[in-house]
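Standup, Tuesday
Yesterday: got the pipeline producing structure tokens again.
Today: sanity-check two examples.
Blockers: none.

Example 1:
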Amino acid sequence: MQTNIHTIRRYIRFYGSVQSVGFRYYARKAADLYGATGWVRNEYDGSVSMEIQGTQQQIDDVIDGIQRGTYIRIDYMDTKPLAVIPDERGFSVRYH
């Protein structure tokens, strides 16, 4: 992904029914589909963390794609802006 003036990066922590429901699978699938980059991982407290980079529309589309998962229920998202990582490629699932 080439960065441009409209590229942003966000750290998002998702709370709700977000583990053992395919959340990371849907996140990676949607990020690949919409051209966003970054990573996603389960946290020990039952939440899921994500760093995602793209346009605001791409990020919104990825979150919408995740929410289409059958058993996924996002109750709350804590979002923080981050510095863009130039020339980042791909979206991965991370493990502790």
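Example 2:
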Amino acid sequence: MESKRKKVFYHTDNFWGYLFVSPLLILMLIFSVGPIFFAFYMSLTDWQLSGAGSFIGLENFKELFADETTWKELKNSLIYTVFKVPIGVAISLILAYFLNQKIPFRGLFRVIYFLPSITMTVAIGLVWRYLFNSQYGIVNAILAVFGIQGPYWMADPKWFFPAIILVAIWQGIGYDMVILLAGLQNVPGMYYEAAKMEGASSFQCFRKITVPLITPSLFFVIIMEFMNSLKVFDLIYIFINSSFGPMENAARTMVYGIYQKAFVHSRMGYASAEAVILFVIILAVTLVQFWGERKWVHYD
């Protein structure tokens, strides 16, 4: 019997698979992977916005670590992340849980909570700057109804950054809610029926059944929120725009600082060094989360 001849590679399924994904891979190499490596190179030079610079080694990193502004930006980025992620995920989980129940107008409520996630951040920032106005803003007007003297949100450094965090939480809960809602809908109902027969309360069902079984969705939401929070820029830029001095320093984050150094002060190499530091921080946080995944994420 004649032995089967080995297929030529371009006649195999693997060849056609690689061929069809190659445009996406090429674009990713050009616009994602390539710029990352180029940023590492630029961080070792005194590259200016107007053109290439000379190699200066680790001088940019030495200057960054000696700059108080860098530490302020890092502090603000961490504060933003520490408050936004836990509070936002917790609210999203509670909303997803209640919107997974059989309640009137459930679909309408889902749409309402999701709308801020697909609204342009520029529009959200401009509207909320108006709402936070201390003289004619709706936020302080509502607080006044309850006898509370509203703060000067847009003029007090102590309240400027908390206002941004509140808006970011409001904008982000819709997307997280949808992801968690999908996880909730995959939890088999027989577990709840068995728990009810054993006399378990709704809170016990939520804590012992719901949360453990949606940990894959929770893990995805948390890790994405951490990365996005550390990279926040657009909302910060909209709020800081036309604010200077103490107000700007109160809310500037690392990505905002990178923008300032690169496109305002034209120090591309210096900005790239801060971008490398941010990259390392995000990578470290992500690796720690993946390491901890084995201890609390339960897959079927």
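Quick observation on example 2: DSSP finds 14 helices and no strands in the chain. The longest helix spans residues 68-99.
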